[in-house]
Design brief:
The chain is an alpha/beta fold. The chain is 34% helix and 20% strand. It has a single domain, classed as Rossmann fold (3-Layer(aba) Sandwich). The chain is built from 9 helices and 8 strands. An 8-stranded mixed beta sheet has the order 1-2-4-3-5-6-7-8, sandwiched between helices. α4 (126-137) links the parallel β5 and β6. The protein starts with a strand and ends in a 5-residue tail after the last helix.
Length: 256
């Protein structure tokens, strides 16, 4: 694998920012790890961080580089601060950045596939919310998305105080259709011709976000969404996410 720390300027944000990128590499003599890369452009996982983290956190807390080496899968990990992957009411346009500018820039820098079937999103906590938001608002771009212990109700148990919620999302109800995953799921299910991405959701049964995850799971089931749900013992911590990201990688519908 090639590991790249990429610092670049974002026109959308109006500032310099960063992403960490893992690129596939075919290797034959590397000790302890098989490296695989198919010819052409690489399938890509956009792997999103949580509220208190940044673009380096998945590498620092898990073995994500080792986990994807044999898959021929590129991984793009952007920095979005405490934005909830949202065009903030009082702040920067992080939704436009992550859903439009970031994929375009990453593909201009690196040999990444633009085909829907080769693009996936996943994340933990706030990043789980972001991954499902990408899936439900940009279904033409992503074929699958995974939420690990996701903060799926952006207006409730999300780690933010009331003032921070207001600065990000605006006054209650002002942008619900854009930022409420429950509403977005309903809107997607109401369009029979729209092919929604496959969804994977997991949460530890001792996690403070567990009940919000159950609510979303049941909501998705009522709507008939293609959602795989798993739960088991676990809290909101990296030992759980390190284990679960491997299950996500096994679940991804990568083309053979």
């Amino acid at each position: 694998m090639a590991l790249i720390q990429c610092d670049f300027f974002s026109e959308t944000l109006g500032l310099s920012t960063s992403m960490t990128v893992i690129l596939p590499q075919s290797t034959r003599s590397q000790i302890g790890m098989e490296g695989k890369a198919a010819g052409g452009k690489h399938p890509t996982l956009y792997l999103l961080h949580g509220l208190s983290d940044d673009h380096t956190i998945w590498l620092r807390r898990t073995s994500i580089e080792r986990y994807v080496a044999h898959l021929g899968l590129a991984v793009v990990m952007p920095a979005v601060h405490r934005s909830y992957y949202t065009n903030m009411a009082e702040g920067l346009n992080y939704w436009t950045f992550v859903s439009e500018e970031l994929p375009a820039l990453a593909r201009s820098f690196f040999p990444l596939s633009s085909a829907r079937e080769d693009n996936f999103a996943a994340g933990l906590s706030m990043g789980g919310y972001g991954a499902f938001k990408l899936a439900l608002r940009r279904p033409e771009q992503f074929s699958a998305a995974a939420s690990l212990s996701g903060a799926l109700d952006a207006y409730r148990s999300n780690g933010l105080n009331a003032e921070e919620v207001r600065r990000i999302f605006g006054e209650p109800g002002s942008t619900a259709s854009d930022n409420d995953l429950f509403v977005l799921a309903e809107q997607g299910a109401a369009q029979p011709a729209l092919e929604l991405p496959k969804l994977y959701q997991c949460c530890g049964t001792e996690d403070f976000l567990y009940h919000d995850n159950i609510r979303f799971r049941d909501h998705a089931a009522r709507l008939g969404l293609d959602l795989t749900y798993e739960e088991g013992p676990g809290t909101h911590e990296w030992g759980y996410w390190d284990e679960q990201i491997r299950r996500v990688l096994d679940w991804l519908p990568l083309r053979k």
